[in-house]
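Let us work through a complete example step by step.
Step 1: write down the sequence.
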Amino acid sequence: MIIAACILLFMTFFLGFWARRIALGKGRNGYIWFVIGFLFGIFGVIAAALMTNKKPTHIVNANGDPVIICHHCGKESPMHLNVCANCHYGFGKDYRLP
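Step 2: predict the structure and record it as tokens.
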């Protein structure tokens, strides 16, 4: 009985971490998706996999400067800022210029 409970607990943590990893890859909040995956199991993982990507899109504007389209407000921001110039949404360390 205790072994079955330990296995069940391990599987719920595993599914929570799996949903978190998928959500972080799509630019979503990992903590919330860990809880969703933990509580709803495989259905939480499937929901995380079906989400749209929220990561900012890299483009080049008419002047040839690299910009990011913010998925939070939809405005263009220069890549060197690492945050949206309009709404101050942080893009994270993955979006810095080399």
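Step 3: interpret the result. The chain has a mean pLDDT of 82.
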